[in-house]
Amino acid sequence: VKQLHREYLRAGSDVCQAFTFYASEDKLKNRGHSAGSHGVMEINQAACDIVKEVTYPEGGLVAGGVSQTPSYITTRDKALVQAEVRKQCEIFKKNEVDLMICEYYEHVEEAEWHVEAVKDYMPGVPVCASLCINEDTDVHGVPTGECGVKLARAGADVIGINCHYDPFRCLDAVKKMIKYVKAAGFDKVCKFEF
């Protein structure tokens, strides 16, 4: 894992992300394997220790990360979902990460709730938020451009699309986000990662 961070830095990355994708307490429990026995605190702390050890001596920035939670799909309970996010953020806040990444959401509503929770729990920390949707809509039919506006309104500093579809469709989705976000009066950075 350390070597992977080193390779990102050697390739020119300024930011390395703690490898905590899908490391929410509810996700670890519903997977049915031993990862759940470690818990979100232990896993996220180990990921922070590793990324900080490699990245900070090279002058890079460290990002914490949160992603989809099973609680959203099973309950649609905003308070419960945001409580899961705060559990994940405890370690990131303690480790004073430089920024947070909220990534890989099919439902813009869940992404909004996550951004709001991170901004509330970690004030002053920049938040990047990305959806894994196509150029037309999220899975609930919210138009892609409007999804960008919703993320901006929720407080995301950087918004975008990531890796669920091919690069051409992702680029088309980001173009729509840029158009709608600017038309809504926001001056946000838009990105796409693949």
Q: In terms of structural class, how would the helical and strand content be classed? A: alpha/beta
Q: Which residue ranges are poorly predicted, with pLDDT under 50 across at least 5 consecutive positions?
A: none
Total strands: the figure is 6
Estimate the mean pLDDT confidence: 93
Contiguous helical run count? 8
- Provide the helix percentage: 40-55%
The major β-sheet equals:
6 strands, parallel
Termini distance?
20 Å
Instruction: Please write the string of helix (H) and strand (E) elements.
Output: HEHHEHHEHEHEHE
Radius of gyration: 16 Å
Q: What characteristic shape results from the CA principal axes?
A: globular
Q: What order do the strands of the largest sheet run in, or round the barrel if closed? A: 1-2-3-4-5-6
Strand portion: 15-25%
How would you explain this protein's 3D organization?
The protein is α/β, with parallel strands linked by helices. Helix content is 52%, strand content 16%. It contains eight helices and six strands, in the order αβααβααβαβαβαβ. The protein has a six-stranded parallel β-sheet with strand order 1-2-3-4-5-6. It is globular. The protein starts with a helix and ends with a strand. The mean pLDDT is 93.
